[in-house]
């Protein structure tokens, strides 16, 4: 049996963040899922993202290492799974992603920033 290390961040507002990239009509699409572990309903969430090509080389976006992925117009209740959310990526060379939650908006108007 392979050892598995599990890291839990007590400042996080989501858990079980999973994502992968597929090419659809020559456009890289990220498929993202997560579970809301906050006490509020999430209406939008922002991730800091880094994109990599097939070789693992960083793909810069507008000369920067990171870019934002914003998912909005959703209603993910506490302890609910987001379902699969599709997001078009900003560069055709991206094949792998690294995501970190950054901020989320709740339906009651709060904007919370992840403290990391």
Q: How does this model look, in words?
A:
There is one protein chain. The chain is mainly β. Helices cover 0% and strands 53% of the residues. It contains no helices and eight strands. Strands 3, 4, 5, 7 and 8 form a five-stranded antiparallel β-sheet that branches. The N and C termini lie far apart (31 Å).
Task: Reconstruct the topology from this structure.
Layout: E1 14-24, E2 27-36, E3 42-52, E4 58-59, E5 67-76, E6 85-88, E7 96-106, E8 111-113
Antiparallel strand pairs: 1-2, 2-6, 3-4, 3-5, 3-7, 7-8
Strand content: over 45%
Mean pLDDT: 90
Global Rg: 15 Å
Structural class: mainly beta
Distinctive features:
single chain; 8 strands; mainly beta; three-stranded antiparallel beta sheet; 116 residues
Short account of what is shown:
By secondary structure, this protein is mainly beta.
């Amino acid at each position: 049996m392979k050892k598995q290390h599990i890291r839990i961040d007590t400042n996080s507002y989501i858990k079980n963040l999973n994502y992968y990239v597929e090419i659809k009509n020559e456009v890289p699409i990220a498929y993202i899922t997560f579970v809301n572990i906050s006490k509020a309903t999430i209406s939008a969430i922002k991730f800091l993202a880094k994109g990599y090509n097939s070789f693992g080389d960083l793909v810069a976006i507008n000369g920067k290492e990171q870019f934002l992925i914003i998912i909005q117009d959703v209603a993910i209740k506490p302890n609910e799974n987001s379902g699969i959310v599709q997001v078009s990526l900003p560069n055709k060379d991206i094949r792998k992603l690294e995501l970190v939650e950054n901020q989320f908006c709740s339906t009651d108007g709060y904007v919370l920033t992840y403290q990391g």
